[in-house]
């Protein structure tokens, strides 16, 4: 058993991370590749990044020791339904010298498993987008939101950025004076916090600055809202509260009232010590007072645990989770 | 004076309308061209459509009788700031045989003038987009919203379409059964009102159906919301109420509390006998109980009146309005 190695991969839009672990929790290696989502990058490019990350994690490891692997990525169902995508991943796996089977799971399940070993619970993720998923027996069950920026992602980084700009435009329409958050946005988007003599000129300039880029890039303004909320600016705090309410509302579409299973918070806006994470915890506590709320951690380690727990020699998957996945809270 | 002719043009995104009127209110001709907005169609194409509409209106009219003209179009300020655009319009004017000067005004002012002769008031327009403008001495003063679908247009046709789809997606997330409005949307977007065995498959199909087209085309779903509201479907009625609140909120950013000047409703969603128009009237009445609310009418006639009222022989512009602009309410 001590010879057994498991491999986990967390494939994201901007990076791919891999980790190789023994069942005793020894971290033999980690690797990193670029963004490897087959949907956005194409199957071949995604497979190449996967291979890069795998080679990093397996440097100096005899690949015949690897007995199980899991790949977590957004849109896992699409990959599984696409023979060319699956074949590209198979090739990367073989080129890394691996002969064991591997499983592909959604990134939401991997985020969940990086935060808890409980078979049932809820994962709530907010980054650029936002999605909530119910986990049953460590499989993704029902999903809420994740509808994309045009139709959903309520409470996400995109949502925070867009709403912040909308508040600023409304202030300028009313001939009001932008507050601290509005001035941050003006500086970020226009290079100056000054409002033009005709405020409509500033409105037009803001709209042009935003529409010049892809809409989803409004998410890059979310850190300004977070920073302003940290300083207690009422406008930013109100936006954070509304975002938290949206996120918990999404979770409530799939999570039963009175549930006591864990809620795992994931994504860039919820894994740090951010005001949004605090607001979501408070809001979730109001809805499900007896449920533990925990934080997603190392996705690659969570993926490795999902792989390891299926091995016949593993009798106590919860104890194994404590060994393999670094605690987050 | 009876020889004097004025010309008005209402230039929209899908059509350009022209009218030639005597100061006695005799309609000598009307003409129509295709969409003539220089911003979206280019200056030369816009000028060609303008000429087509002008020639229609002036067929059989001695062009030397035309003493004044007004062109109303969205983004009038941009045209005035663009020498090439202005030159193209000058050429069209000359090619139509016209020697008098012409003025260019925003389409919002022309809509306002098609509904009232009062020099001061508010115009509130909802079609694909939404904008409110304060009119002072028959010039556009401050403007609210009109920020486009990504950042604004709250309460517009785009907004109604997007919110209706969002409500449907939330219902499907919750494993609920779509109501009458949801079934209309499913039929329109997917060709069937049936929800898949896995509701998430229907969610994904809806998102794909919407994102396959330009975002602004969500506005084409607005008539479904309106039709459902006419039949009293609570979900549609609630959306209409929210849209009306957004529209009146935009007007409130620029219109003083207690104002008694007229409010003119324009745009495809507010000029008909629609539930949104009724809801906006009711909401506006709550905010400004002593203000008359009227409807925008023939924009080309409104433009012609704006031109005519500047002529030295016009001593009673309000009486002239009654002659030139067909009453709407």
From TrEMBL, chains A, B:
Keywords: Kinase, Transferase. GO terms for molecular function: kinase activity. Residues 7-306 form the ATPase BadF/BadG/BcrA/BcrD type domain. InterPro entries: ATPase_BadF, ATPase_NBD, Euk-type_GlcNAc_Kinase. Transmembrane segments: none annotated. Pfam families: BcrAD_BadFG (PF01869). The keyword Translocase does not apply. This is N-acetylglucosamine kinase-like BadF-type ATPase. It comes from Micromonospora palomenae.
